[in-house]
Amino acid sequence: MKLTLLGAPGAGKGTQAEILSKKLGIPTISTGAILRSAIQEGTPVGKQAAAYIQSGRLVPDEVIIGIVQERLAKPDCARGYILDGMPRTIPQAQALIDHGIDLDAAVSIEIGDQEIVRRMSGRRTCPHCGASYHVANNPPREEGKCDQCGTALVIREDDAPETVMARLAVFHEQTEPLKGFYQRLGKLRSVENETGIAAMSAKIFRALGIEE
Ligand code: AMP
Fold it and tell me: Of all protein residues, whose CA lies closest to atom 8 belonging to ligand 1?
């Protein structure tokens, strides 16, 4: 199965992508995580992307398309994958089609801006493995430490309130039109936000016709 998750920053795409990934036995491909590790490693792509990410803007389409093309060519993607945070623009979605990539469904997580701003203030991220937590909704077993690798959790630089507002504006302007794009292709599965991670996953499974 080839899926993409659409939704505002903080909608829970990363968390739900991980759950789907375990359930379906296919990898999650998060362009945000790939870019963050490229920045940490100081690669040319990382250097190109850093200023965009810090200011909450989108990284240019050609950079993203290159990253995704390279990643999807790896053998673990042969049975399918879940794209988390890509496509984020119509040209990116069109590029997938132009490269012969035919997604089965685009799951759109519907959530209001107010809830996003509230959630983002509690988000904590592992700088090592990229796992995401929330101080109230999804706390790690030991406060401030990643469950998976034990690294001290941080607040992502682009989760600062003013950057969140910029990212939300970018989402409405450039990413939301993708809903119409996938609707016209008959691939849109809209799912209203649900309190609780498991309840949200159950809704997504249902929308995709996956047995729980
Ligand atoms: P995320 O982890 O998905 O919230 O992404 C963090 C940041 O990485 C975004 O705010 C963008 O600056 C950049 N980014 C991630 N994915 C994309 C994409 N598909 N297109 C453009 N920029 C992206």
Answer: 32
